[in-house]
Amino acid sequence: MPFAERQAIYAAARTYIADNSVADMQSSLVFDWKRGDWIRFTVIPETVETDNGLLFMRNVAGQWQVENFGTAFPEMYEAFP
Fold first, then answer.
1. How far apart are CA 40 and CA 8, in angstroms?
2. Burial of 16 (0-12, 13-18, 19+ CB in 10 A)
3. Domain coordinates in residue numbering, the chain
4. Whole-number CA gyration radius for the chain
5. What is the pTM of this model?
6. How is residue 21 annotated by DSSP?
7. Distance between CA atoms of 46 and 63, rounded to whole angstroms?
8. What confidence score (pLDDT) does residue 58 get?
9. Could you confirm whether domain 3-79 is CATH 3.30.2420.10?
10. 17, exposed or middle or buried, with CB in 10 Å at 0-12, 13-18, 19+?
11. What is the distance in angstroms between the CA of the first residue and the CA of the last residue of the chain?
């Protein structure tokens, strides 16, 4: 994956997390895998009280977009173990 594309994916993921999670939560993104049109990140919060989350992105018409974000997505785990 080209560096510029990876940077754009990280930026989109970080923006989504900032807009859709606890406002003061700091977190790290760990790139887990890319399979075809799907990417998964593990979101590791820096606060002890919060569990790790997963962020799934999908490439639609050449643009990466967030499909799911949270701590548990059984249907996504089954599709993408």
1. 15
2. middle
3. 3-79
4. 12
5. 0.75
6. S
7. 29
8. 92
9. no
10. buried
11. 21
